[in-house]
Amino acid sequence: MKKIAIMIVSLLLFCPSFLWAMSEVSQNEPIIRIDSNHELQLPKNFRTTSNLENFKDNIPSIMGLIELHESGSSQFSEKEFTQVLGKISGKIIVVDLRQESHGFLDGTAVSWYGKRNWANVGKSLGEIEKDEQERLRSSLTTPINIAPFTANEGKINNAFTEAQLVSSYGVQYFRIPVTDHMPPSNENVDQFIQFYKSLPQDVWLHFHCHAGHGRTTTFMAMYDILRNGKKVSFEDIMMRQALLGNMDLREIPSSKKAWERKLYEDRALFIKQFYDYVTQSNDDLPVMWSEWIGQHQ
User: Fold this and answer.
1) Residue 154 has what pLDDT?
2) H helical segments located in the chain
């Protein structure tokens, strides 16, 4: 209980976006929606650091990029996951960046969507996992309405969490519950740093969120910074991740709504601060991110 209280105080002190998101959370019941159909294809926005077809004339620097062994995508269905496994190799770990409740119904990827995709803001990972398990279990016995379609008339034969599905293919799974549209919280970053420190040499990380854009690009860039930040400039890392994923974390799209632009600004500031944290720290990162950022606000 004390740990949870400390976590909430930390979020309020150093993550004003979190406080605002909490005030925006709707109390309405989330709706279930299809994220990706159970079809034999690659998931949307799939990319790997081994595919450099968009790179011309060594601009930006590709130092350490091929050796990074990372990939990213949108949420995959079960069949799409098999296609991902055909494109990557090594000791694979799927890094699930979704805070929102999600899972698989007969191989189709589904999630429970609340206002701005923030239905689980303020919940612990344990609470989120319990919510997922209950919703998936209920879908086996109770008729459900899946947006944008009408009532599901067919019987659901199997329902799995992502951890269960990924593990069934002999692949490791790790989850960091990051709020959609927002930069990662201090707790998210500390969790990722601890995870990074535990990784073996021959690992391949596959990151995904819902669409494969904001959260996925952010964490692919963070991993690139951790591995290569002291050898490659911030601008080059941002540019090469943008070429891979078609999203530049430094840009604030004018087409976005005001609340979205503010969160884009927060994310752009965060990723530069994270680069500074890594490049100004010893290689073993003895000072955790939450402590460092508290001293550099």
Assistant:
1) 65
2) 2-14, 16-24, 78-85, 125-139, 162-168, 186-197, 214-228, 234-245, 258-280, 289-295
**Sign of the alpha-carbon dihedral angle for 130, 132, 137, 143:** positive
DSSP helix/strand/coil, 113: strand
Residues 217-250 have pLDDT tens digits of 999 999 999 999 999 999 999 999 999 999 999 9
Whether 4 has a pLDDT exceeding 60, the answer reads no
Q: Quick one: average pLDDT of 272-294?
A: 98
User: Do residues 206 and 84 make contact, with C-beta atoms less than 8 angstroms apart?
Assistant: yes
Give me the pLDDT at residue 283, please: 96
Structure tokens at 286: 């003895």
Number of domains in the chain: 1
d(CA 114, CA 101): 10
Q: pTM to 2 decimals?
A: 0.89
Task: Output DSSP code: residue 283.
Answer: T
Instruction: Decide: 177 and 118 in contact? Cβ < 8 Å.
Output: no
Rounded to whole angstroms, the Cα distance separating 81 from 75 reads 9
Could you write out the DSSP letters of every residue in 228-259? HTTTS-HHHHHHHHHHHHS--TT---TTS-HH
Which SS3 state, helix, strand or coil, does residue 38 take? coil
- What is the longest distance spanned by two Cα atoms in the chain? 58
Q: Residue for token digits 């530049």? A: 248
* Cβ pair 220, 184 in contact under 8 A: no
Radius of gyration of the chain (CA): 19
Token pair, residue 278, equals 């890594």
Vertex 177, ends 172 and 179: CA angle to 5°?
Answer: 145
- CATH number of the domain where residue 82 is located: 3.90.190.10
DSSP label at 211?
Answer: S
Domain residue limits at 170: 2-295
